[in-house]
Amino acid sequence: MAKGKKLVIVESPTKMKSIQAYLGDGYEVLSSVGHIRDLADKRDIPADKKEAYGKYSIDIEHGFDPYYVVNERKTKTVAELKRALKDADEVLLATDEDREGEAIAWHLLEVLKPKVPVKRMVFHEITKDAIRAAVENTRELDQALVDAQETRRVVDRLYGWDVSPVLWYKVQQGTSAGRVQSAATRLVVDRERERMAFVPASYWDIETLAEKREDGSAKESFSARLARVDGATLARGTDFDDNGQLKKAVLALDEAKARELAEAVARVGEASVSNLESKPGTRSPRAPFTTSTMQQEAGRKLSMSAKHAMSVAQRLYEKGYITYMRTDSTALSTQAVQAARAQAVQLYGDKAVPPNPRVYRSKSKNAQEAHEAIRPSGEQFRTPAQVAGELDRDEQRLYDLIWKRTLASQMADAKYETTTVTLEVDADGTRVEFTASGTVYTFKGFLDAYEEGRDEKRADADKADDQALPALAVGDKLRLKDVEAKGHTTTPKPRYTEASLVKALEEKGIGRPSTFASIIDVILDRGYVTKRGQALVPSWLAFSVVRLLEQHFPDLVDYDFTAELEDDLDAIARGERERSEWLNEFYFGSDEHVGLRRIVENLGEIDARELNSTRIADGITLRFGKYGPYLEVTDPANPDAKPRNVNIPEGLAPDELTPEKARELIEAPVAGDRVLGENPANGKIIVVKDGRFGPYVQEEDPVDPDAVDTATGVVEEPAPKKRGSKKEAAPKPRTASLFKSMSPDTIDLETALRLLDLPRVVGTDPETGEVITAQNGRYGPYLKKGTDSRTLQSEQQIFDITLEEALAIYAQPKYGARGASSALKEFEADPTSGKPIKLKDGRFGPYVTDGETNATIPRGESVDDVTFERAVQLLAEKRAKGPAPKRTRRTTTTRKAAAKK
Length: 901
Known about the structure:
Strand order of the largest sheet: 8-9-13-12-11-14
Number of strands: 33
Helix content: 25-40%
Oligomer: single chain
Radius of gyration: 34 Å
Shape: globular
Number of helices: 25
Largest sheet: 6 strands, antiparallel, barrel
Strand content: 15-25%
Distance between the termini: 37 Å
């Protein structure tokens, strides 16, 4: 690099090219590819520092000083940055403008130790004007933001490393606890508990079609619903509590009364308009997107997970199409407001915008986030049609959403009028009143551009469809037809979706919007939550984890405590609290808080069996064991007998395991060990069994004929040996798993013997003399010749393939075209390697490759949506990270104490 150039360091390789073009030859732009160092593993801490830093890589006795090491995958990146630094006369740290970006900038400063001036360069959009302005308006590194992020990292390490081991020993290996993930898991579990405790209530009403017809005019009809009977208000779903009891004095019709009343109304067949009421109203647009509201709307309208939405938004930001996507702010710059208003007028007319610009105030006071809402970048917004050819499908869909939301936020209120009509019927002396409502928009305003989505709510079933009412007047006679009594049942609160969970996390102050996507990703990956459609369903593992935390670490999953902790971290970011003082209070305790260390040291005895148990009904208990959940059933007539264990079907949600469902599972026919016959080769008995990992056949010694049920072929279990008796050593019996195409109910002796004889010898290769075998493995059926294996297309080939067919497979290249290409998609040549890019489905999921570099398709992205541009980007990011080097001694540094202000 020529002498006198300025070194600009950004986080992402994708930004480098655009920013380099905007800044010109006087600058060199390089990327750190995210964080370059993190807390050390125990093995990387030198012997002389083990005592102070050994447990957490944090010296808790001296200001909670962390011990950092350069990530072994970033040594090449650091070397490249140091090379460029030698010839630079100034360094501009241009990492993202949130507190994590500030921390990355600080780490770069600590590792690179530049001897030239260092400035902090921040921008919230990647446009030429924004980048040039950022260069002209640099600032110093904000140490308070750094302290806040480093405090967060230390807290997460202390929390996770102190609490997670308790879960390993008392619940299950591999489980973990986290400052925000545990509170988020509790939210999902609490909702399921509410659903489990919910008692449904039944109620009935009557619906009819009211028809107005005047002489010579067409029929105009609308739906109406029963509202009052003899002046008493009819019960709706919202009138019942979660115990199925009415909350106020209303009339609840049963089926018999509702049908009787409906028949009476139908006989009359006519109603009169007794009341008409019209009310005007207005609707105002929502504020522009913050990180949280963008994730929610992307989930509702685009069915994107929070993680996927953030990944797409990141790409849009780095390509220069939107502003920075991690923000709590709803504010728009003056230029953005002008751009939105001008475009709204251009598209929808002069009346589309109010006389004065709308100003939105952010409720968040934390100093972490950017200073503007998410919006299209630039001083003039590009329409979705203008960028359609430059974006992939998901990028285009999300850009369209952001553009519409931004425009709508500056548009005029929508105006409407809602009319409610009351129809009265005299049904055999009973005064029956029906109501119907209709809304007409007199001015659509912002609704021309955008309408916010909504989450499912319990009262949705009671809401009438929006409809247009004909012109009516009090006293009009209407014909009633299709009079029908309808039954309803109250429903529990809907399960969280990713969108509604993000909303709940924000409302309760758990985590920060920039972390919501990773929070949800963690609880999904840990198996605490699974997705059923869009709904998040907690596992029984989550119940055990949350129960342990509630009983022994109550503060750590308390919603208010978690929110207060976030507020404290924000106070550190604003410079209002001192980092080490706060950490000391959090860990060692104070007058207000017990402290994490005291909690861990005074846990006492934890009954793991009780912790992993949930009572379902008398004598029926849900247990969570090493291999998952099961029902433990005791015999009330013989309580001292060994309980019976019953497997729970995979996919059965906790709230669906009712006492009735549990009894159904218990009473279902037991698939016992079925005797298939005798192996003629050795006289042993062949039995088919159903194990934890699926059905299998096993070869066993002959049993007493009296122990076999001649009708069913089921072997009765022998009486258990007395406790303390010495076990006799015996060779393990031969076993073999059934193929996926086989059933334990239909498998016969001949097939079972063929399974037990696997691997099957296909023959000998005449050229090498090596034996070729066919067998089933972890990844499916395959051939094996020495150390060379080849995949088979089906399990049946294990039994059927001939030596000639096997030799033909081995005669072909191991990797390459055996028939059609294995690629899911094929693209043009990669601009870096010059080789064609292919999208393939690998053992660990889909990935793109140019033959030299492989890059996994991120979770949540659809294979169908991967374009050539996206494939090039993924490969570039993978190359920037570099290959994982062999483990070597890593560069180590300790964190310097922040300078006092």
